[in-house]
Amino acid sequence: MARRVVAWASYGQGPALVLCHGTPWSSRLWADYARALSAEFTVYLWDMPGYGASSKVPAHPVDLGMQGELFGDLLAHWRLDRPHVVAHDGHLHRAAV
Predict the structure, then answer these.
(1) Neighbours of 61 (CB within 10 A)
(2) All residues at 6 or more sequence positions from 38 whose CB lies less than 8 Å from its CB, including other chains
(3) Distance (Å, rounded) from C-alpha 46 to C-alpha 27?
(4) The pTM is what?
C-alpha cells in the first residue's frame, strides 16, 4: 500500500496555534489568517487526510477517527502539548476529544 503523506507548514514565532480546516476544504482556507497571526504566534497548518496536498489514496481511511489519530501524531511531531486550536467546523473537535 502507498505511504500516507500529510502536508503541513508552520509560520512565525510565539505561542503555538494550530488551524484546522473543515470538510471539504484544505489548509489554503487559512492562508491569509496564518500570515496575519504569524506576527504573534507560531501558526501550524495541515491538510487532513484526503484533502489539499495530503495523500489521496483510496485505500487510506479518512474518517473522524483517523483524522483525530493523525492530529495527535502531528501534535507529538511538533512537540506541542496544549496548543491553541482553531477549527473550521466540528469534525476535528469530535475526533480529538
Answers:
(1) 13
(2) 11, 12
(3) 6
(4) 0.86
In tens, the pLDDT along 66-94 reads 888 899 999 999 999 999 999 887 655 54
Burial class (CB in 10 A: 0-12, 13-18, 19+), 18: buried
Instruction: Kindly state the average pLDDT of the residues 36-53.
Output: 95
Q: Using CA atoms, how far apart are residues 17 and 91, in angstroms rounded to an integer? A: 18
CB burial readout 21-54, b (16+ within 10 A) else e:
beeebbbebbeeebeebbeebbbbbbbbbbbbeb
Contact 89, 24 (CB under 8 A): no
- Residue with grid cell 502531528, as numbered in its chain: 74
| More confident site: 91 or 24 | 24
